[in-house]
Fold:
Amino acid sequence: MSLTSALPKEIQQINQQGALIVDIRERDEFRREHIPDAISLPLSEIQAGAKLAGSSPAQPVIFHCQAGSRTRQNADALARLTEPARVILMDGGINAWKQAGLPTVKVSKQPLPLMRQVQIAAGSLILAGVIAGYSISPGFFLLPAFVGAGLTFAGISGWCGMAILLEKMPWNRR
Structure:
């Protein structure tokens, strides 16, 4: 198994020689912004058993995520997915790609990625509960406690009610 890492400028050169770029971020993240010619194969789908189609053993496969941590943490699984092809992990992910001044396909009409929406909603509810708890009634402190309990449950179980609710909102319908 051949596993290496490279910076975005190197990745661009390797890509021009016929490499396959695979974006392992979630599909909503990919739809909002991605590297030209990249394909979407979310890590969650890989972990559920999805396979990479359309690559050949002679073609290097480049994996990237948002900042590089998902690809590093799952390097062995990504390498097994493409054996015997050469696997390259992009250092710094799409963030580093953009910092290097390389092009992306950006669709700003797409909603924010779902997890960012969850973070904004949870943070807003916690902040509102704390402000109301101090200024109106201590009973409002139950709101941030409830949100915190929900986030803890989501982290432990992998099931997030707030994400499911936000996914059904009109702006997130596809």
Notes: Residues 114-135 form the longest helix (22 residues). Strands lie at 3-6, 20-23, 33-34, 39-40, 61-64, 87-90, 105-106. The chain has nine helices and seven strands.
